[in-house]
């Protein structure tokens, strides 16, 4: 009996496998309509600069209600101004240090009261230290982990319950090419970006297992994008690993969210890193050296991170 059910399950699996490949092929040839996001509440962390700002401007053009979270209040103001110029009607900005759990939960409550339940959550805020492992101060490594991954736990915990209640919503995380393969001078950063993939992929499976198929997830893995975070980076193989324009990156990410893609590799050559699981070690190291991953951060000098430029306000400043 048990053997029979196992055979029928395997048969069902094989039929569905073929069907889903066929479906993916058809969708590749005739892509489905992108989803309409007009009127949706979209919260973007790290919206004050770089990729987050460009994601915001693309959603602004599509009529979404926007909520910006960042530690950089001046940057938030500039993104509000630009979003309005790009057609946004409802725009709200909050100073929130996403690495601070209590602050995330407090500001999330404020958003629910003042704006409503978030439909699309884009976890973009991130920092990078760019130092060799032994040169990295312990506190800086902890900060990277708190901003780049712990923050995503807190924001998802804050906004997922409302999505689950109506079986509708979208969680988006900006990981990185270094979430797929390690990189010289990025031990803490790469670890945090690998963690994002493990986190959101697991959450996606958990939601599927619970029957919450209406909640989508998208993991974005860009290589290099010309923002403050990547200033000083030198690429030796631009065809393989180009520095992408930030406006292009923002547009592609919003398109992928509207197409409800599970993974977004930018550029597509990022997928090549999956081959690391199949090649001999010496081939892997040779390929990594050829791609420039051993030295493309050599030009990055010690710089002040954005969060050091924008320390939390003192209690007397918060009114
Ligand atoms: N630029 C690249 O080459 C590149 C490549 C791959 C992935 N990424 C990822 O894309 C995301 C955006 O990076 P970017 O290039 O636009 O960098 P950026 O420095 O231009 O923007 C990052 C934003 O995050 C904000 N931020 C930092 N710490 C925060 C905190 N504790 N709480 C709230 N906001 C905080 C900053 O103020 C800033 O506005 C990051 O997660 C980054 O790791 C960037």
Automatic annotation (TrEMBL):
Protein name from the UniProt record: Epidermal retinol dehydrogenase 2
Annotated GO MF terms: oxidoreductase activity, acting on the CH-OH group of donors, NAD or NADP as acceptor
GO cellular component terms given for this protein: lipid droplet
Recorded family membership: Belongs to the short-chain dehydrogenases/reductases (SDR) family.
Keywords: Membrane, NAD, Oxidoreductase, Transmembrane, Transmembrane helix
Pfam families: adh_short (PF00106)
Domain of life: Eukaryota
CDD domains: 17beta-HSDXI-like_SDR_c (cd05339)
């Amino acid at each position: 009996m048990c053997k029979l059910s196992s055979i029928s399950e395997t048969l069902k699996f094989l039929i569905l496998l073929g069907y889903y490949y066929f479906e993916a092929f058809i969708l590749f040839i005739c892509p489905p309509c992108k989803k309409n996001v007009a009127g949706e509440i979209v919260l973007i962390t790290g919206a004050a600069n770089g990729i987050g700002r460009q994601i915001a401007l693309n959603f602004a053009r599509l009529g979404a209600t926007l909520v910006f979270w960042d530690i950089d209040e001046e940057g938030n103001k500039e993104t509000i101004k630009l979003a309005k110029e790009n057609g946004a009607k409802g725009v709200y900005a909050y100073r929130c240090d996403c690495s601070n759990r209590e602050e995330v939960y407090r500001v999330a409550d404020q958003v629910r009261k003042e704006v409503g339940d978030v439909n699309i959550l884009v976890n973009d805020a991130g920092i990078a230290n760019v130092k060799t492992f032994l040169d990295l101060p312990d506190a800086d490594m902890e900060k990277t982990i708190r901003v780049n991954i712990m923050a995503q736990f807190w924001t998802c915990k804050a906004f997922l319950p409302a999505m689950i209640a109506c079986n509708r919503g979208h969680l988006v995380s900006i990981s990185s090419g270094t979430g797929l393969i390690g990189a010289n001078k990025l031990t803490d950063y790469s670890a945090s970006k690998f963690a994002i993939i493990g986190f959101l992929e697991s959450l996606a499976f958990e939601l599927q297992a619970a029957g919450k198929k209406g909640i989508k997830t998208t993991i974005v893995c860009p290589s290099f994008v010309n923002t403050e975070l990547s200033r000083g980076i030198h690429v030796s193989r631009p065809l393989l690993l180009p520095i992408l324009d930030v406006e292009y990156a923002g547009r592609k990410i919003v398109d992928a969210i509207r197409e409800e893609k599970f993974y977004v590799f930018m550029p597509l050559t990022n997928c090549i890193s999956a081959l690391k699981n199949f090649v001999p070690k010496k081939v892997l190291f040779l390929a990594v050296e050829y791609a420039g991953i051993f030295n493309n951060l050599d030009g990055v000098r010690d710089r002040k991170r954005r969060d050091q430029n924008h320390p939390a306000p003192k209690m007397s400043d918060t009114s």
